[in-house]
Amino acid sequence: MSGPELVVVGAVGCFAGLSLGSLRNWIAGRNASSKAAGRAAGVPSPTAGSFMSPRNFMSPPSHLRRDMPTSQSVESRVSASAFLTKEVADFERAKGVSKELDTELFVQLLGKLMAQSKHLQNNPRLGIHPEEKRGVDIVLKDLEGLSTKKGGPLILEELEYVKGRSNLKITYPGTTSKTVAFIGSHMDVVPADPEGWDKDPFQLTVEGDRLYGRGSTDCLGHVALLTAFLKALAQARPKLKQSIIVLFIAAEEGGEKGIGVDMVVRNGKLDECKGGPVYWVDSADSQPCCGSAGAMSWSLKVSGRLFHSGFPHKGINSIELASEAMKVIQERFYDDFPQLPQEEAYQFATGSHMKPTQMECAKGSFNQICPVTTLHGDIRLSPFYEVEDVIKKVDEYVKDINDYIEDLPTRGPWSHFQLPEGTEVQANELSRGKVELKWLGDMDSFELYAGIAVKLDSEGHKALVQAHRETFGSVQPFSVNGSLPLVKMLQKSGFDIQLCGFGLMSVYHGVNEYCLLSDMQKAYQVLLRNICILESFVETVSLEDVN
Sign (positive/negative) of CA torsion 277, 282, 287, 293? Predict the structure, then answer.
């Protein structure tokens, strides 16, 4: 790029001391002393009453949260005691199905998938694209003998919308239109650098209870688990009222569109899943997950005027302007998007938040006032707010800052964000600071990663909590401030999305990623109990309808 070279520095120093609570206490005194010092030096001061605190040009809080469905109202709370049936899971509902995971089969499957994980790495920004078909072929080969083509009960459908990047749908038919679906377990993995690992990330390493390798937790371990479960189901052939549907997807880690579950939905291949709960199996820590936050990335470019640091009144310090502008943006954000009672009810650790995470400054001499500073950061948005509202509001904040930039607080008597009249500037220089916001994504990409709050009163949620409690002896549903792609889109499309997973959050995308075999053994029992509980409920409801 042309112009000054950019160098990344930590953002903490520039924002030290800018706590929102303390600013109001000293801003009046600071401006009074700054004006007095400026008058003594002959620097023009604003006319009486012209100073505007950032608060003064704020729009009133708009309470942008949308009306919540009854199932997500503040009256609904995450509960460890939720249940669907008063009786414990009756395994006779899935008669003949093994109550224990075939660990030998599971480890073999995971090993085969892990051997392909080098080709399943996905990071489109780095030009790394996976071949999910390699993983799909492994599952197809293992289940082929139990497919309808071979006289078995399983309907196998490879769904490919981009060559080499397959999705795989597997159906175990029931006797009614009711369904239980397990989707979201994906064939792609995040890249791994072998030099940083103690193990080969692209081969399965078994050390006691630990199964090491890229994708063991996220998400090839879940693929192997569900494949082993389907095999046990197909071998026993229990007569179920509900069809069991599993969808292994492509393009989850890269967030690409037109390849994975979005295309499966668009082509109507999941329409029947609206007849029952849909479990997104890509969470962690063997607990029901009740919600996730949305993710929105942004950059804020702040331009000032380069000048000798001995004459600060003739320059515009972009670092100082970035600090003040960011403070105003954050303050207004928290006014418009405050923490909500629903977030506490869903046990989110925090409400929505907006913060800088990186900072770039134009590289120059220490005796030069920095002309360009760029902040990068993200917003983690509660599922009880809408993406389009945030974009509209934050754009307004930036517009107001530019319109009233001379009214922002400054750093001492010599700091200006608009130069005094008569200051000589060159044709390509600014006499007034400028703040420019760039969203690092479009509306579609932000909605792709929108947060979700699951329906707590659904049959699927109650069965999931009950199955975990019966398997582990206790249960602690939670919500996470991280983000999952596609889930809100599916919920808006009419699916009863529920979240669960059995890997380890502590090693997600990490070095020496692993899962625990004991966790996967328990996970198998959760899946079986979940189906049996739902089967009992369906029969109870049917009998009540008859009576």
Answer: negative
- Rounded CA separation 94/232 (Å): 10
Sole residue written with tokens 């490879």: 158
> What distance in Å separates the CA atoms of residue 278 and residue 181, rounded to the nearest whole number?
5
Is 188 among the catalytic positions?
yes
DSSP state of 75: T
List 132, 252, 459, 535, catalytic entry: 252
Please, are residues 529 and 471 in contact by the beta-carbon 8 Å criterion?
A: yes
**Of 318, 399, 340, 345, residue with least CA distance to 66:** 340
Contacts of 372 (CB under 8 A, 6+ apart): 3, 4, 6, 301, 302, 303, 304, 318, 361, 362
Quick one: which H or E segment has residue 510? none
Residue 379 corresponds to which tokens in the numbers above? 């917003």
List residues bridging with 379 in a β-sheet: 296, 354
Q: Is 305 helix (H, G, I), strand (E, B) or coil?
A: strand
Instruction: Please state the length of the chain.
Output: 547
> Is the separation of the CB atoms in 531 and 94 below 8 Å?
yes
Dist CA 167 CA 280 (whole Å): 15
Per-residue pLDDT of the chain (547 residues; tens, 9 = 90+): 333 344 433 333 333 333 333 333 434 444 444 444 444 444 444 333 333 444 444 444 444 444 443 344 556 899 999 999 999 999 999 999 999 999 999 999 999 999 999 999 999 989 999 999 999 999 999 999 999 999 999 999 999 999 999 999 999 999 999 999 999 999 999 999 999 999 999 999 999 999 999 999 999 999 999 999 999 999 999 999 999 999 999 999 988 889 999 999 999 999 999 989 999 999 889 999 999 999 999 999 999 999 999 999 999 999 999 999 999 999 999 999 999 999 999 999 999 999 999 999 999 999 999 999 999 999 999 999 999 999 999 999 999 999 999 999 999 999 999 999 888 899 899 999 999 999 999 998 899 899 999 999 999 999 999 999 999 999 999 999 988 888 999 999 999 999 999 999 899 899 999 999 999 999 999 999 999 999 999 988 765 555 4
Residue from 159, 185, 150, 156 nearest 173 by CA? 156
The rounded distance, in Å, linking the Cα atoms of 105 and 148 is 22
Active site residue 386: no
Q: Is beta strand 289-292 parallel, antiparallel or unpaired with respect to 478-480? A: parallel
Question: In this structure, what are the phi and psi dihedrals at residue 248, rounded to the nearest 5 degrees?
Answer: -90, 130
| Cβ proximity of 397 and 332 under 8 Å | yes
DSSP state, residue 365: -
Using DSSP bridges, classify how beta strands 372-381 and 294-303 pair: parallel, antiparallel or unpaired: antiparallel
Instruction: Give backbone dihedrals phi and psi of 182, rounded to 5 degrees, phi first.
Output: -125, 110
**Do residues 217 and 510 make contact, with C-beta atoms less than 8 angstroms apart?**
no
Q: Cβ–Cβ contacts within 10 Å for residue 147, how many?
A: 16
> Taking Cα atoms as reference points, which of 204, 201, 182 lies closest to residue 193?
201
Give the active site residue among 132, 142, 188, 470: 188
